Amino acid sequence: MSSSDVLVHSAIARALAAQGMTTLFGVVGEGNIRVLADLVEDHGVRYVKAAREDGAVLMAAGYASVTGEVGFATVTHGPGLTNTATALTQAARAGLPVVVLAGDTDPALPHGRQRIDQAALVAPTGAGFQPIVSPATAVKDVARAVGRARAERRPIVLNAPVNVQAGTVAYAPAKASPPALQAVGPDLDALDRAAGVIATARRPVVVAGRGAVLAGAAKSLRALAAAIGAPVATTLRAKDLFRGEPFDLGICGTLSHAPATETILAADCLLVFGAGLNSDTTAGGSLVDGKRIVHIDLDPGRLGLRTEVTVAVQADAGRAADTLLEWLGELDLPHGSTLCTEELRTRLSEFGPRSEFAPHDGGSVDGRDLTLLLDRVFPRERTFVSGSGRFMLPGYAWMRVTEPSAFIETVDFGSIGLGLATAIGAAVGRPERPVLLTAGDGGLAMELPELLTAVRYGLDLVLVVYNDSAYGAEVSITDRLGKAHDLAVLPDTDFASIARGMGASGVTIAGPADLPRIAEAIENRRGPLVVDVRTDPRTPIPH
Q1: What pTM was computed for the model?
Q2: Per-residue pLDDT, 330
């Protein structure tokens, strides 16, 4: 080892710091402890200790969601990585840039207790795999992993075998890494065909998805919609992008409220920017049937993938909208039969979700009323994270946020039990915004150890449990089967008492008469707060 050489684990740490790592979520073990020690002691990286490895990855995903930056996590080899499989799949399907530094065993010891083919384990999750193949390539491999996470918008597992970490290398900064996605301008011929469709439309609607959010295209889309007399709507992942617009229809799809559904059904053309047009957005195809569709997306693989479209244009949403606005501005477009009428403006301004359901009779709290209450009493500048379960739909539809990155859903893989760790990452990434997390009792039981993490770091996080003592979605299945009702029933669990035992505050809401206590508890919170609300698994849900 010459005087200019460093141990590879130190070179990896230095390279990660050079790539912008400031916060790292993880669980320490033999396979990652050396790099972790270097990051914390030598580079001042903030290390957040997760209770479980899947929690660490979800925290990094939550951090990436609210900051727009790469989230970083670290785990040890073998079981440390196997524990991340569901979290990696969720983050991959959510399209989140995350780098997971994973230790790996020495291949010279093929019968080691924690030996497993880590590349084969990662492959089916949809995450990428970037091996550190030798001391000489270590710094370049780190830069490549971070660059890939940014460009591919998915988790990349940076695999670091312990024998490579123990080697030496003359450190030199990486010369380059893959660039992030760029604002690609549209093909002019394709966009001209799109403009022709738009110019002849009489009842257009503009629909924006997450691609439009990432492109920062809200202002351009508002201007385009105003120019052609079109109402605006979003997918779930672009929730509240157009909040405050007089003709904001809200979410397009199965979560649409009545005025939005009627308006979208009446449209003759949909202008779709940065949205995948999945079955949720199209309401099983019913909202696109018989319509001309202009589909604009930066990813050519998404164009027309799930829905047949009239014109497909590969482009950045903002660049395409700006060019269309310029071109259409040169035309004398008819405005006589647009959907943006005073009647629609009035309906949207007067509409309230309370009109969509009848009061619930019973001693438990109606989850729909609970959702509306939370929207009223929780601070407006917030991050809203929803776990998965039967309770989630009212929150998706009715819980407002100030901009799309302030809302995180965790249902991309259809798994419950992913919300708490995601919320912790969001709280760390945007500490100035209190985090509201909604969870079901079944899912929370899976992830409850991470409450210790929230307590350890004193995070401003309010966890509201829709506690129906059941797997609510499965109750509806056993009801339809007419048998085995106990399969989906869970023991009554006092989560408020458990929370207090773990160092958080806890409040129990046993029935509707207790609901006013929620606002008081939120107002007086100091650190993590758990609000355990007793609900009914058979309460109807919207949509």
Answers
A1: 0.95
A2: 79
